[in-house]
Amino acid sequence: MIIIGSDHAGYALKESLKQNLEKQNLAYVDCGCDGSSVDYPDIAETVCRRVLKDSASNAKGVIICGTGVGVSIAANKIVGIRAALCADYYTAKYTRKHNDSNVICLGGRTLGADVAWELLNVWLNTEFIGGRHSMRVNKIKSIEERENKEKNNE
Q1: 65 in catalytic set
Q2: Which helix H or strand E contains 125, and what residues bound it?
Q3: What digits encode the pLDDT tens for the residues 109-154?
Q4: Which residue out of 31, 65, 86, 105 is catalytically annotated?
């Protein structure tokens, strides 16, 4: 399952990507927006919470704002999310292959629709290779656990 959302700056790109997902018969859930002005942290949180909720089904998230930077910052505040801002093929491929990213962030004002689809397509079709990279992803999870403990001890 693909969970997709955007703010108003990413709306046109989101709609274009949804058309490509439909052509490929890929199931998705649209978490907004409808083109009206919204705050990107709200969309990022909605998409990420849904990705975590549907993680048993290997859900992946796609979040789009003007540059992709804002949604990536917001998304990475949520424990369990490994969001990657992608603007090139190599990054889109290797963030899945090595980092097991579960959310891709894209810029609606910085990427054309064809490039964005290429990035999303390679990201969706690349598997995490594990091995030594699993140890590194586990270290990221350990950082999250320590942060949560520190917050709870305050």
Answers
A1: yes
A2: none
A3: 999 999 999 999 999 999 999 999 999 999 999 999 999 888 888 7
A4: 65
